[in-house]
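Researcher: Here's a chain I'd like modeled. Treat it as a single chain, no partners, no ligands.
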Amino acid sequence: MCSATDTSQADTCQRSLAKEHKYLTLKESYTAWHPELNEPGPMVLLGCGTASSSCGQIVSYPLALIRTRLQAQAITSVHTQEACTMIGLFKTIVKREGVAGLYRGITPNFMKVAPAVSISYVVYEYSRSKLGAKAS
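Model: Modeled as a single isolated chain. Structure tokens:
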């Protein structure tokens, strides 16, 4: 039986770290270029959130795809022995579909980035400032 637990944990950790690091880097770069502003406005925060989430998805999407396919194989029991592991499935996808196959279905994820993830960054920033917390 195939297991997708390892890919799920790795995907979650990798995506979170990549998004948070990129967001803070973009925000700090903006404030360095515009020292006259104390805090970036909501549109800048939306832009930083969108860019960071997009970068995080580009990095982590292949793992999410592999996790989903492993889970689907576990339910349907239709799989080859070589495609039962992360590495085996990765090789199978690249061999059959090319590198673009690792990003099949990413478009809907990009479409939800701006309204979902970016708004959470704006809410985070305004909540942090109202509570008087300092950015680390």
